[in-house]
C-alpha cells in the first residue's frame, strides 16, 4: 500500500498518540484502583503443603507438623498440579472488634476452594466455606466475581486453612480487607473494567454497523475478535460465571479456552483480510488459514478434553501464534506495506501481554501486575490500534477507488475532446439535457427523502397515544406479539401488567373531562419515571386502562414493579386548578414462558381478569398469577 507522505505522517502521529494515551490510561486505571487502606489485621506468612485429595480434611489438618509446611512466596503461584494444595495462615486479633473483615482471593479460575477458620482455643473449625468454579453463585458466601469470605470476629488469634484443587494454575493472591474499604475497592475496579468493556463493546457494535453499510468482511471479523476478547477477559475476571452463565459450572471450566481460541481464530482471519499475505507468499497465507482452522478445532476440543490438558496446549500455542503473526507483520512491513507496519506495532502489545501471561501462568516469571491485568492492558491497546489501522485501510481503499474513477473520467474527457470540433452543438445540447436530468434527479431524491422522513414521522405518530405520549393499543398488540415470540424463542419469562384508574368516572363527573385528561397524563408521567429498562413498554390500551410489557421478568419482579407503580400514583396526587385529586389504581399481573403463538393473548386475558378481581376485592391493589400451560 502506497500512502502520501503527509497522510503517512498524520497516521504515524495518530497511532503514536493513540498508543500512548491508551497505555497511560489503562496502566493508571489498574495501578490506582485500590483505595487508601487502613491497617488490616496482621497475619503470618502464607504456608502451603501438597496432599492427595483424601489425605487431609478440616478434622486433621491442624495436626500436620509445622515442618511439613513450606513458606509461600508472594504472589503465590504454584503452577499447575493434579494434587490438592493446603494453605495455612494465622490472623492476629482485630484491633477494632466492631469492624467487619473480609478474606479476598483475587483470582477467579479456581475449581474447588474450601476455607476453614479455627480459633487457637478450639480443635474444630468455627466456620467453613466453599467456593470456586464448581459452586453456583447461590452456594457461595457472597455473590462476587472473585472468592470472598467473611471473617468471624474474635478476640483470639485465628488459624485459617485453605484447600485448593484446580485443573489450571494454582494462584492464591490473598488479602484481608475492611468491609467498607473492600466496597470502595470493588467500585473502583468495576469502574476501570467498565471503561475497558465499554470500549470493546462500543467498537464491536460500531464495526458491525460498518459491516452492514460497507459490506466489508474485515469489519465483521474485527467485531468478532473484539467480542471474543471481551468474553475472554470477562471469564478470566469472573464476571462471566457470576453474571452470564452462573448456573453452569461445567461451562465455566471450559469457557476460558473456548473464548480465547475464538479470539485467536477471529484474529487470524482478520489478519488475512487486512494484510495482502497471498500477494507475497501463498505458503504463509495457507499457514494463517490453518491457524484459523486450528483454533476452531481447539474450541471443539475444549468441550471434549479436560481443561488441565487444553490450557497447557493453548498457552504454548498462543505464544507461538502471536509470535508468528508479529514476525509476519514485520516481514510484510519490510516489503513496503505501511498497514503491516502499524499492524506489527499493535500485535506487539498483544505479544508482550500474551507472553507475560503465559509465562506467569506456567510459573516461569513473577510480575508486579497480574497476568489478567496485562492481558487487559495489552488487548485494549491492541484493539484501539487495530481499529485505527482498519479505518486507515478502508480510507485508503476508498481513496484508491475514487482516484481510479477520476483517472477513468479524465481519460474519457480527453477522448471526447478529440471529437469536440465535430460534435460541438450535439455535446452542448447533451450537456444541457444531462444537467436537467441531474437537476430533476436531485429534486426527486430530495422529494423522496422528505417523503421518507414524513412516513417515518407518521409511523411514529401512529404508534403513540396523542393525549399521554405513551404507546397506543396498535403498538401494544405488535409489541406483545413480538415479546411473546422472544419469550418462546429464548425460553425467558414475560410479564404483563394491566392497570386501571380507580373511580375514574367519578373524577370526570366531579372535576370534568379536562381534569380526567390531566389525570391520564399525570399517571403516564409517573409510570414513565418508574419504568427504567429500555425493553419495558408502557402503553395506553383503553380509556383509563394502561398496560406494561416486561420482557425477561418473572412473576415476583412483575408484581414488584406493579406495586411500585401503584405506590407512586397514590403518593403523588394531581394538583388541578386549586384542587388536589388523589388517584389510585388497580392492577393485574400475569407471567408466562411462551410455548406457542396464542399464549400472548391468553396472557393478556389473564392479566385483564386479574385486574377486575383486584377491582372487585377493594381496588388499589395488585393481584398476580402465573399462566398455566
Please, could you describe this protein's structure?
One of its GO terms (cellular component) is plasma membrane. This is diguanylate cyclase. GO terms for molecular function: diguanylate cyclase activity. One of its GO terms (biological process) is cell adhesion involved in single-species biofilm formation. It comes from Alteromonas genovensis. By secondary structure, the protein is α+β, with helices and mostly antiparallel strands. It has three domains: 243 residues, Rhopdopsin 7-helix transmembrane proteins (Up-down Bundle), CATH 1.20.1070; 136 residues, Immunoglobulin-like; 154 residues, Reverse transcriptase/Diguanylate cyclase domain (Alpha-Beta Plaits). Helices cover 57% and strands 15% of the residues. The chain has 16 helices and 18 strands. A six-stranded antiparallel beta sheet has the order 2-1-4-9-6-7, with no helix packed on it. Strands 13-14-12-17-18 form a five-stranded mixed beta sheet, with helices on both faces. Strands 8-5-11 form a three-stranded antiparallel beta sheet. β15 and β16 form a beta hairpin. α5 packs parallel to α8. The N terminus is likely disordered.
Give the topology, please.
Elements: H1 5-31, E1 47-51, E2 70-71, E3 77-80, E4 84-91, E5 101-105, E6 112-119, E7 127-131, E8 148-151, E9 158-165, E10 169-171, E11 174-178, H2 179-214, H3 217-237, H4 239-244, H5 249-274, H6 277-280, H7 282-304, H8 307-334, H9 338-361, H10 371-418, H11 424-462, H12 473-490, E12 494-501, H13 504-511, H14 513-530, E13 537-540, E14 545-551, H15 555-571, E15 574-576, E16 579-581, E17 585-592, H16 599-616, E18 622-626
Parallel strand pairs: 17-18
Antiparallel strand pairs: 1-2, 1-4, 3-10, 4-9, 5-8, 5-11, 6-7, 6-9, 12-14, 12-17, 13-14, 15-16
Helix pairs in contact: 1-10, 2-3, 2-10, 3-5, 3-10, 5-7, 5-8, 7-8, 8-9, 9-10, 13-14, 14-15
